[in-house]
Amino acid sequence: MTRQKICILGSTGSIGTNTLDVITRHPDRFEVFALTAHSKVSELAAQCATHRPRYAAMTDLAQARLLRQQLQAQGLRTEVLDGEAALTELAAHPEVDAVMAAIVGAVGLAPCLSAAKAGKRLLLANKEALVVGGALFMEAVKQGGATLLPIDSEHSAIFQCLPEDRSAWADRIQHIVLTASGGPFRSTDLSQRSSVTPEQACAHPNWVMGRKISVDSATMMNKVLEVIEARWLFDLAPEQIQVVIHPQSIIHSMVVCRDSSVLAQLGTPDMKVPIAYGLSFPERINSGADVLDFRTLAALTFEPPDHSRYPGLALAWSALRAPAGSTAVLNAANEEAVAAFLNRAIRFDQIDSVNQQVLDNTEVGAADALSLEALLSLDQRARLSAQRVIGGLSR
Length: 395
Ligand code: NAD
Ligand code: MG
What we know:
By secondary structure, the chain is an alpha/beta fold.
């Protein structure tokens, strides 16, 4: 078997390290070709020492210089690239078979488009890229002949419940149900939302994840992004996407078929499962995740999302119905709001109001979603608007 050469964008993060964990279990199948990160030089250097990639890239020039020194000191031959252009270059490198997009945020869009246009097998964890890029992203996948494989656990679940032949999806799906854990504040008193700290917000009950997605899970903005992500991945109308709270995170999502039959995918909450499936599709390989033990499962429960607790959730459907580009505005606002909350500049309960105000304030024109450049300039405009709103808030 020829080994798949893998490029991991964001290798030092939660998804990146889980991907390396799965890859390490299958040296006969996979070879690490390139690793990239934004910070954490020593972590990336250690990954290079273990996996011996051909290339490593750091977006920051000074950090890249440090990495070069560390690798040289260890006698490693990995070539170090720098800057954002290195990511787009590596994602499309002719020798790369599969790209794991595990960068957080809209900054991942350009390398994702590059991998899509180059016809790669594209494992998408970076949901923000699809929320920002939407139609443009899907068009690049089509034009480039790329294979887009969802890594988000909900979308992997839906994907696993659908036939391999994509042309059969539209006739099959009545609607889909995305499950949400409800995050760490599902049952805390609503009055306490204003005093939530970053540490509390990042302590997710079921999943260990990066800080940004952890805050998104607490506000339910993660599910907003996932509704938008599902709209593009499965070509659904907004009204075909439902969200239900399922606190145990055992059912990862469901497809309701035209005949009312419901298909679900279950498992322990461990991202190694969707990562392994993305790597091996259409085959299945050992992921290293624990198997679900039904004898010890007490209960699987479900409840409708409470809109007073999660006021931002409805923005998913309204942004999808607004002019194309509105989802990019919402994403940019949220990235800025979450960063401000993590820096203790705004309160937890102010994240939703920043998002709503930026959506209301930002004019989206007909051409704003037609190219990467237009989307990035819209993203920039929305960030400036968010910073103004944030500056005007008192904690
Ligand atoms: P993380 O914060 O743990 O890691 C992010 C990675 O991206 C790091 O390697 C970091 O160096 C890199 N990065 C950050 N900013 C960058 C920039 N400006 N330029 C280039 N690289 C940059 O995040 P994570 O939890 O691994 O999440 C990654 C993506 O996967 C996110 O889009 C998230 O929504 C999605 N996702 C994560 C999980 C999970 O369990 N962690 C589950 C589903 C989806
Ligand atoms: Mg998810």
